[in-house]
Amino acid sequence: MTRTIYLTGEAKSPSNNPITTQWGLFFVGLVVDTETHVIQAADCTATLTLTVEFVRELLVGRSLLEEDALVESITDRYHGSSQKALAAAVRSAAAKYRDLSALPDQES
């Protein structure tokens, strides 16, 4: 049986970004399979539906433990104004996941 958890990551978005005006911070929400560590579903506080869909494409089906690869994919493919905020939010979610799972730091 698959066990999933929901967690969020957050980061500051640029002050001139509509995300900051609407929500104050950039949030990413993830559903993660705790057996495989694979992201099953993703959402974020983007103002455009296309952005949310693209973020899902970048994250769903990938391991949250492969934080550097996720951030590299964001850096290579996502060129919206909240790129740094998205990368930081994913790092925030990955850190929470490691803490919840009592997993060793994958950056070492």
Give a short overview.
The protein has 4 helices and 3 strands. With 108 residues, it is of the alpha+beta class.
How is this structure best described in words?
The N and C termini lie far apart (31 Å). It contains four helices and three strands; from the N terminus they run E-H-E-E-H-H-H. The protein is α+β, with helices and mostly antiparallel strands. The protein has helices at residues 18-23, 49-59, 67-77, 83-101; strands spanning 4-11, 26-33, 39-44. A hairpin with a 5-residue loop joins strand 2 and strand 3 (39-44). The model has no long low-confidence stretch (mean pLDDT 87). It has a three-stranded antiparallel β-sheet. It has a single domain, classed as Sufe protein. Chain: A (Alpha-Beta Complex), CATH 3.90.1010.10. Helix 3 (67-77) runs antiparallel to helix 4.
